[in-house]
Amino acid sequence: MSTSSAATIPHLIAAGFHALSDPLRISVLELLRKRELCVCDLCQFLGVSQSKLSFHLKTLKEAALVNSRQEGRWIYYSLNLTQFSILEKYLADFTQNQVISSARLCCD
């Protein structure tokens, strides 16, 4: 892994958890869990305006949680399962370390 990649991993993990911290974005991800959807369908299912949804989709894209592709004038969104795997592995690494060492004595 290169230095730039190593520096990117904490950023992507933080961005991923930030993106997961909003109920509307969670709702988007739940809809995309079933199938790829265009913006107009997402707006309709969620009952929000396209401008409001665009802000949240941008956050999800920056966190690499969703992929987008353009077909004609429509943009279609789908889950980026690779990024979910990275977040899952990050959390799993905490539970695999069953023994947490005590702090060493500090000097006075």
List keywords for this structure.
three-stranded antiparallel β-sheet, alpha+beta, 108 residues
Q: What does it look like?
A:
It is a single chain. A 3-stranded antiparallel beta sheet has the order 1-3-2. The chain is of the alpha+beta class and 108 residues long. Strand 2 and strand 3 (74-79) form a beta hairpin. Helix 1 packs antiparallel against helix 4 (50-62) and helix 1 (3-19) crosses helix 5. Helices cover 61% and strands 13% of the residues. The chain has helices at residues 3-19, 23-34, 39-46, 50-62, 81-96, and strands at residues 37-38, 66-71, 74-79.
Helix content: 55-70%
User: Residue-averaged pLDDT, rounded?
Assistant: 89
Question: Segments where pLDDT lies below 50 for 5+ residues?
Answer: none
Q: What's the total helix number?
A: 5
Radius of gyration over C-alpha positions, nearest whole angstrom: 18 Å
Sheet of most strands = 3 strands, antiparallel
Beta-strand percent range? 5-15%
